[in-house]
Amino acid sequence: MPTTPYKMINGLSEVIGNYDAVILDLWGVVHDGVTPYPSSIPAMEALKKAGVPVALLSNAPRRSSVVTARMEEMGIARDLYGPAVASGEIAYHQLLSRTDPWYAKLGRKVFRTGPVRDHSMFEGQDVEVVDHLEDADWLLCTGPNDDDAKVSDYEDMLHAAKALDLPMLCPNPDREVIRGGVRIICAGAIAGRYEELGGNVRWEGKPLASAYDFCLQAFDKGPDAKLLVVGDSISTDITGSNNAGLDVVLVTGGIHAEELDAPRGTLPDKGKLDALLAATDRHITYAMGDFCW
């Protein structure tokens, strides 16, 4: 992938005049899974005041309605953004329609891993959740059952599932996230290990370009609209934006803050950021230390 120059900025106000709309990541950009970052709500309010439409695209493995409800609980008003698309919503509709050949082959009986908050994936679905792998037709992995779990905790289960040749649906490609200041594994870490073992994994969400297509359909923006993505993860947000051909801001104070040695709100040393981008073969349009106006 060719490298392109990027610009270090202190806030969206420096460049937002070049764009018609914004697509925001949530975890690591707007909030930390527990509370909003101090600058995020003011930034969303400024975008609204400037007349710039905002859509949300999150690798949350649950229905979009659950995501928006959680945002309101955090104090993020619903009128600050338009469409909210969770990767779980994409998977949900695929499961419901089963028009895609991979989904069409799935049976009714599913064995799941993940927290109770992800049960919305089964709303209105013709499925039966089973307690034993031997009874399952497929697996749904929405994350670890407990925040302090490790991938190794699922090793025996994954080997048993592979022996049964069970396909796995993973509606969250994220490997890890920082929740309330603590780094925890996500569904993608468990599903990635299953794939390493030779398991059949179907991914939904970023970095797949299809996630952006789903978001843009909900956004109802014309083909000539100039869009700007804001995200904090090289592996999902930046890769997904590159795959979709969209301009992107990397919030360096998110998941990569530690390796860039730049706390949230500060810009990293350009050499360190250049090295990270080169190592991952990705390019960005802008870098800023926090999601702020």
UniProtKB/TrEMBL annotation:
CDD domains: HAD_like. It comes from the Bacteria. InterPro entries: HAD-like_sf (IPR036412), HAD-SF_hydro_IIA (IPR006357), HAD-SF_hydro_IIA_hyp3 (IPR006356), HAD_sf (IPR023214). Keywords: Hydrolase. One of its GO terms (cellular component) is cytoplasm. One of its GO terms (molecular function) is phosphatase activity. The keyword Hydrolase applies. It holds the Pfam family Hydrolase_6. PANTHER family: 4-NITROPHENYLPHOSPHATASE-RELATED, OS08G0542600 PROTEIN. This is TIGR01459 family HAD-type hydrolase. It comes from Thalassospira lohafexi. The lineage of its organism: Bacteria, Pseudomonadati, Pseudomonadota, Alphaproteobacteria, Rhodospirillales.
